[in-house]
WD repeat-containing protein 19
Amino acid sequence: MKRVFSLLEKTVLGSPVQFAWQKTLGNFIAITGSDHTVKIFDRHGQKKNEISLSGNCIAMDWDQDGDTLAIIADKSSSIYLWDANTNKTSQVDTGMRELMSFLRWSKTEALLAAGTAKGNLLIYNHQTSRKIPILGKHTKRITSGCWSNGKLIALGGEDKLITISNHEGDTIRVGTVKGEPSDMQFIVMKTDDRTSGSETTVSVVLGKKILYLFNFQDPDNPIELQFQQHYGSIVAYKWYGDGYIMIGFSLGFFVVISTHIREIGHEILQVCNHKDNLTSIAISQSLNKAASCGDNCIKIHDLSDLNEMYAIINLEDENKGLDQLSWTDDGQLLAVSAKRGSLHVFLTKLPILGDSCSTRIAYLTSLLEVTVANHIEREIPVTVSVEVEPSFVAVGHYHLAVGMNNRAWFYALGENSVKKLKDMEYLGTVNNMCLNSDYAAALFEGKVQLHMIESEVLGTQEERETRLFPDNDDKSKILCHTLTSDFLIYGTDAGIIQYFYIEDWQYVNDYRHPVSVRKIFPDPSGSRLVFIDDKSDGFVYCPVNDGVYEIPNFQPTIKGILWENWAMDKGVFVAYDDDKIYTYVFHKDTIQGSKVILAGGTRVPYSHKPLLLYNGELTCQTQSGKTNTVALSTHSFLGTLKSVGPNDLKQMLTQTIMLKRFSEAWELCKLLNSPSSWNELARACLHHMELEFAIRVYRTIRNVGMVMSLEQIK
């Protein structure tokens, strides 16, 4: 996994670094050591602000939308607030003449609960600035608490009490417990029918040894879960899935238990993840991953199979050990703090952004890095550092474009170098961008702007530098577009596919479809095009004769199409969704006319996005910013044929005939050496009106009659 950045904070022994990711967006991380400041960094490690405090930070928490960070500090009864939108800091006077000890935002509203060292509580409404002080909520310091998804707040303190209150601060229930409560969470207990009820239970750790489930509607029957001594003390726990709890223990173990009434406390899994100690665990629902840290490594597991290790990150330089671990809400970044005061941020998931042009591909390899490669031509990959985290990437023969919102940055690709050319602003947010050798075409708000990439190209008349489509008198909206070497092609909500010939600067062809055209994918020459319409049906369109051919068994889940780039395999394309790749062949000239056939399907590995198809091999992009190749099952004849049995050879022969790869079929017939195979190949040649090849086959099997008849027809 890629490290995005590392920081080192000043700390003293026993008070390690604290940090908190901005909720929802994950654009900022707040970090504090022992120097009386909270520093705010963006996700690339650039410092945005530094907030000076009266003493060391005691607690900090982001509100649900990530707009406001609240902080309390030693030697102060105020609450510090930092606004992420304005980058400004303010202070709220609590009116309490005592030190603050606890802080937590509501999950649903702009309500902030703050507890004090003497057991009093303040509920502050950030929108109305209304403050509700509640004196004597606890008799000693408030140390932990949580909000429910409703408007309840649970608090625990050094007085060994648990209180449940409403958002006005009125106490609903009080419970006495054996040890000091920490790490409180509202939960929905699962009953026998596994239906989800409301949050009537609070889970809490007591004295670092017991997990206590307190149902405040049935306070006399709490559930106490105790664990084996050799696990050590409870470090942290997380709820996930359908009523499961993952618990991390100090001596390196992590354990998963179920809370279904019938199997409550039953250990489903127990793993010793770290040799000496475990200090934190984290779960990312969006990634479906769990992580634990201890000693000087992080171990990541897949939640669907916790016995399998997904990844291990070793931090050799952290000889004093690791401390806390936390993911952003979207699962893209994982932060870990270390006991010596450092913080490391790792990239765990990248947006899958990429594009291809002929056999060249461009794809995101880090948040601010795009790699351009051409494995087929064996070119050395080039990495390009970009200015922003892009939301689109486009590659042409000589250029790369990346951008977000209404801006795009253009780069010229040299032999082994990259030169930034310019950046452009468009009249709306760009949904998609395409490049060819000279031009770029950007789709935004139902329009396409076609413009020269480098306007210094000599001999270009001014009117050919840029043009906006559709024309002013055309009220239709463009839904999809693409550029080939010669044409700008676009599809509209009125069902029209337009071909604009760049050389003559005019429209040359249009096709009218009954419903709107959602996506278009031309083959490398632009002489054939697959389009997907509003009903999720797929068609092959040939502009030369205006022919349209429906694609059979076309799944409504299809995300995109890739045409074969290998010159000999004209007419082969794949359609892909999240799970499967379907290989199709467009047979243009057969004795029954033109048609599309489905040749077979191949499974797609998890979160692989196809980028390029070349000679039956698919290059895919993965979430980790790498590429991977997948061999299509319809092209198994391309492998070694040495130890293949006759049945497999027959299947391969069927594949080669379907794909019109007659020279490979010839080699297979020689291996099979049976008259039926030769006849099958000969009939296929006739079906595709390949008379020369058919004569060659009939000569081989000495069918004189057929040879003579075909010579006459020829």
